[in-house]
Structures are given as structure tokens and as C-alpha cells.
């Protein structure tokens, strides 16, 4: 009976650490660039920190700002076959002025691009399920309370 609260607390801590909700760790961003059929940076981007090491030109790099980006340029007349389209994933030197995650058209190096900003470890992959503390925390808290009182 007295081991249950410790096991529950350890489980909650493990879930928080693995979901990226704990603070203090250096965040990483994917870093790569591809154009057309060259490179592995464009969507469908299916790499994680482990598999990116095996792919030439794709890295998971430390990012001091904690803000990652993905930009797509050349989406004009070649959109149907992706010829001339480039996708780049990178670490941003600083956060957006409003601190909001979003995707929008913007100007980058004098070119109109579609860019997404996100905050978090390796958040600039093509698709990521982002868990919020309430989504994850409330069911875990209810389960923990139930286990402690049973």
C-alpha cells in the first residue's frame, strides 16, 4: 500500500519528462534543406531524433531560443510537381515578437515564403501531436487519486 504513491509519482514524473513538458532542457530543432527530389527535408518528413542521424543532410541540432521553424519557398507555378520547391527546417535565433506559434506567408531573405514557427523539442517536423498539460494531466491525476485511495 505505501509503495503505490511512490509508483504513481514516479510514473507521472516519467510521463512529464518524456512528453517535453518539463522545463530546463535544451530544445532541439531539425536542420535540413531540400529542393525538388533532392534531400529528405520536404514533407512527408518522417524522421525523429534517432532516425535523422542515419539520413544525410538531416540533423537534430541544439537550439538556444527553443523556437524552430519550417519554411517552404517556390510554391508558385511549380506547385503540382514540386520542381523548384525548397523546404528548410531550422532553429530560429529568437522567438516571434508576440511569442505565438503559427504558420503564415512572410518575407525571408527577400523571398515570399510560407513559414511556420513552433516552440519545443524537435517541433518542426511535418506532423506532431502536441500534448497540452490539461489533456495529459487531468486523466493522469484522476488515475493517481484513484490508485492512492484504493
UniProtKB/TrEMBL annotation:
Pfam families: QVR
Keyword Lipoprotein attributed: yes
Keywords, alphabetical: Glycoprotein, GPI-anchor, Lipoprotein, Membrane, Signal, Transmembrane, Transmembrane helix
Signal peptide interval: 1-22
Keyword Transcription on entry: no
CDD domains xrefs: TFP_LU_ECD_Rtv
Native organism: Megalurothrips usitatus (bean blossom thrips)
Any one of the GO CC terms: side of membrane
Location in or out of the cell: Membrane
Membrane topology: Lipid-anchor; GPI-anchor
Name of the featured protein: Protein sleepless
Source domain of life: Eukaryota
Principal location: membrane
Gene Ontology biological process terms in this record: regulation of synaptic transmission, cholinergic; sleep
Amino acid at each position: 500500500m505505501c509503495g503505490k504513491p511512490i509508483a504513481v509519482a514516479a510514473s507521472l514524473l516519467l510521463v512529464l519528462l518524456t512528453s517535453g513538458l518539463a522545463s530546463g532542457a535544451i530544445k532541439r530543432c531539425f536542420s535540413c534543406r531540400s529542393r525538388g527530389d533532392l534531400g529528405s527535408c520536404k514533407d512527408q518528413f518522417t524522421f525523429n531524433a534517432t532516425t535523422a542521424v542515419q539520413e544525410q543532410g538531416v540533423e537534430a541540432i541544439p537550439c538556444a531560443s527553443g523556437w524552430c521553424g519550417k519554411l517552404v519557398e517556390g510554391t508558385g507555378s511549380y506547385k503540382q510537381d514540386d520542381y523548384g520547391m525548397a523546404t528548410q527546417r531550422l532553429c530560429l535565433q529568437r522567438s516571434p515578437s508576440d511569442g505565438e506559434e503559427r504558420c503564415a506567408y512572410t518575407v525571408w531573405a527577400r523571398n515570399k515564403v510560407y513559414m511556420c514557427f513552433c516552440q519545443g523539442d524537435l517541433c518542426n517536423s511535418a506532423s506532431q501531436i502536441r500534448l497540452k498539460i490539461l489533456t495529459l494531466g487531468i486523466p493522469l491525476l484522476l488515475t493517481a487519486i484513484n490508485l492512492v485511495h484504493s
